[in-house]
């Protein structure tokens, strides 16, 4: 029915009515807080391109996890900066690797926190690529063997969820098989299913000290132009046993996110990446935008597009803002 019988402004008249008809609501339980852990003690090193984010030693990581828990955040995802890098990414699957140490420390301090372990090799290889190099290229199948080992060692250390982000074909199947074989049948996999080769990862590579030393990641991460291909990526990961899937980055890929959610109806994550965070921080520092308003609007838009959970560097701030 048309105007004047219908007036949509009627339901916008007061805060109480707006609240009643609100379709999407953010909750601290939607957020997953990424943490960068490095060796040492009492370390809290600011990351220049990500104001408010730090490289943390394990003890500081536990401290921040406790603060996040208190604010209502129920999940973190761990990234590691190892002592040493080498050609085979040994730091990624060492029993006393940095992510393994952090996972076990957080789980002992906060047994109910859902601790996710990012599984990728770029932080652990001396060349900065996400796998083993053979003939000048990242070798898919050799990398799968390392992924399988890494997943088991992360699960042994206490990680509740394994999150492979290397964009190797068959990585979910390889990890599922390895976890099942090591008696971790109940450890879920959050697959970075549609991960694009994106300029938005710039600040992360400073944070994790993981830029590729030659070439770029376009040989394994997705072309930003492709949405249909994302459907194939998700389909394969689902077939291989992914329990949850992710689209990454978030803000420039909301169309992909929305299609993924609609088509599979799976628990779906979106990663609002370092560049998305840095852009808001930078504009806010100049006084050009209202940080809190924009950050919450961005998170809301990601949830509205179909995300059940959001990996975001704003997790702690947003959780606090929502409870004020
Ligand atoms: C590792 C990885 C990256 C990010 C998460 N896992 C970087 C990359 O692929 O280059 C990016 C996260 C962010 O930018 O916040 N492969």
What can you see in these coordinates?
- The structure is a single chain.
- With 324 residues, this protein is α/β, with parallel strands linked by helices.
- The protein has one domain (27-323): TIM Barrel (Alpha-Beta Barrel), CATH 3.20.20.
- The chain is built from twelve helices and twelve strands.
- It has helices spanning 15-20, 58-71, 90-93, 98-109, 140-157, 171-181, 202-207, 228-240, 254-264, 274-285, 291-305, 315-323, and strands spanning 31-37, 44-46, 54-56, 75-80, 114-119, 132-134, 137-139, 161-164, 190-195, 244-248, 268-272, 309-312.
- The strands form two sheets. Strands 1, 2, 3, 4, 5, 8, 9, 10, 11 and 12 form a ten-stranded mixed β-sheet that branches.
- Helix 2 (58-71) packs across helix 4, helix 5 crosses helix 6 (171-181) and helix 8 packs across helix 9.
- The model has no long low-confidence stretch (mean pLDDT 97).
- Bound molecules: ligand PBG.
- The site of ligand PBG has 11 residues, from helix 7.
Question: What structural keywords apply?
Answer:
324 residues; alpha/beta; TIM Barrel; two-stranded antiparallel ribbon; 12 helices; 12 strands; globular; binds ligand PBG
């Amino acid at each position: 029915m048309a105007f004047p019988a219908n007036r949509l402004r009627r339901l916008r008249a007061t805060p109480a009515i707006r609240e009643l008809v609100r379709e999407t609501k953010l909750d601290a339980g939607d957020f997953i807080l990424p943490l960068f852990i490095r060796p040492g003690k009492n370390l809290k090193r600011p990351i220049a391109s990500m104001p408010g984010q730090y490289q943390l030693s394990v003890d500081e990581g536990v401290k921040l996890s406790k603060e996040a828990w208190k604010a209502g955040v129920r999940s973190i995802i761990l990234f590691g900066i190892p002592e040493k890098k080498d050609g085979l990414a040994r730091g990624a699957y060492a029993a006393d690797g940095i992510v393994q140490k952090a996972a076990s420390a957080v789980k002992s301090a906060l047994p109910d926190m859902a601790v996710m372990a990012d599984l990728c090799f770029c932080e652990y290889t001396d060349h900065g690529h996400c796998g083993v190099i053979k003939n000048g290229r990242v070798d898919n199948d050799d990398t799968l063997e390392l992924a399988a080992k890494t997943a088991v060692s992360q699960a042994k250390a206490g990680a509740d969820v394994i999150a492979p982000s290397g964009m190797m074909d068959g990585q979910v199947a390889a990890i599922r098989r390895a976890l099942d074989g090591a008696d971790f049948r109940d450890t879920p996999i959050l697959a970075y299913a549609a991960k694009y080769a994106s300029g938005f990862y710039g600040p992360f590579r400073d944070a994790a000290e993981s830029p590729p030393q030659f070439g770029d990641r376009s040989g394994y991460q997705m072309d930003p132009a492709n949405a249909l291909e994302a459907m194939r990526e998700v389909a394969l990961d689902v077939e291989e046993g992914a329990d949850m899937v992710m689209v990454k980055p978030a803000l420039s890929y909301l169309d992909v996110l929305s299609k993924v959610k609609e088509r599979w109806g799976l628990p779906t994550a979106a990663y609002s990446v370092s560049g998305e965070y840095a852009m808001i921080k930078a504009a806010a520092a100049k006084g050009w935008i209202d940080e809190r308003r924009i950050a919450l609007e961005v998170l809301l838009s990601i949830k509205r597009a179909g995300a059940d959970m959001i990996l975001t560097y704003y997790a702690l701030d947003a959780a606090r803002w929502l409870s004020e």
